[in-house]
Specification:
Blueprint lengths: L1 H18 L12 H10 L6 E3 L3 H11 L9 E7 L5 E5 L12 E7 L7 H6 L2 H19 L3 H10 L3 H34 L4 H10 L3 H14 L1
Parallel strand pairs: 1-2, 2-4
Antiparallel strand pairs: 3-4
Helix pairs in contact: 1-9, 2-3, 3-5, 5-7, 7-8, 7-9
């Protein structure tokens, strides 16, 4: 067991060294024109956008192309004053409705007093797509659960260990949906490029996948094919 962990640490360290400064390969990027075509194809018309930043709206719609089943769910993209940079949740009064009749919301922090507010606005476009894809993975999870199961998820989220497990699983869903490089790009931006305070950077590192870990997963999956 000790030998296994030592091997894993060395492998992770080498991946981390290689990952620093990596860019998303051009062939891995879904361009906006393709996103528009995909959205038109699946008649994705149930979503409301209540924000004024066009590139954030484009990032949302681009990430949506990786979740075609969510095109038939009501999702609202809006501003709000929250503790993190972004969050996704069902609207309160719709939690205990049938999953296909709920309304979900993706909230972008616009509280000027919070340093993490500028995180999503300062991030490169593909990093924005990555974090949008992460939030949509949360909504995908909610859409498969009953109201009581969603409430139980909320209770679990209070504990740091279970919160980390939830966020890791959510990152994995986004990666499996083909957004691995975008999720990596956002994690790399937060860790190495963003101008946020150390406390929030440490929180992101403690709860979410680190860029080196995402990079390792992506490259391992590529080797499988």
């Amino acid at each position: 067991m000790v030998k296994y962990y030592a091997y894993y640490f060395c492998m992770l360290f080498s991946v981390a060294e290689f990952a620093v400064g990596q860019n998303i390969p051009e062939e891995k990027i879904l361009h906006y024109e393709e996103a528009v075509i995909s959205l038109d194809t699946v008649s994705c018309t149930l979503h409301s956008v209540f924000i004024t930043n066009d590139t954030l709206a484009l990032a949302f719609r681009k990430a949506m192309t990786h979740y075609p089943e969510l095109c038939y769910r009501k999702i609202q993209l809006q501003y709000g004053r929250i503790k993190t940079s972004m969050a996704a949740q069902p609207r309160f009064w719709s939690v205990f409705r049938n999953s296909d009749k709920r309304t979900y919301k993706v909230i972008i922090n616009n509280n000027p007093r919070k340093p993490q507010t500028q995180l999503i606005y300062a991030a490169p476009f593909d990093a924005r797509v990555g974090v949008m894809g992460h939030e949509l993975a949360h909504i995908l999870d909610y859409s498969t659960k009953s109201g009581w199961q969603i409430a139980l998820t909320g209770v679990k989220y209070i504990g740091k260990k279970s919160r980390r497990k939830i966020e890791w699983q959510t990152d994995m869903v986004a990666i499996e949906r083909g957004l691995g490089w975008q999720v990596y790009h956002f994690a790399y931006f937060v860790t190495h490029k963003s101008d946020i305070d150390n406390a929030y950077r440490q929180y992101k590192s403690d709860i979410y996948m680190k860029p080196e870990e995402i990079f390792e997963i992506i490259t391992f999956k590529n080797e499988e094919y």
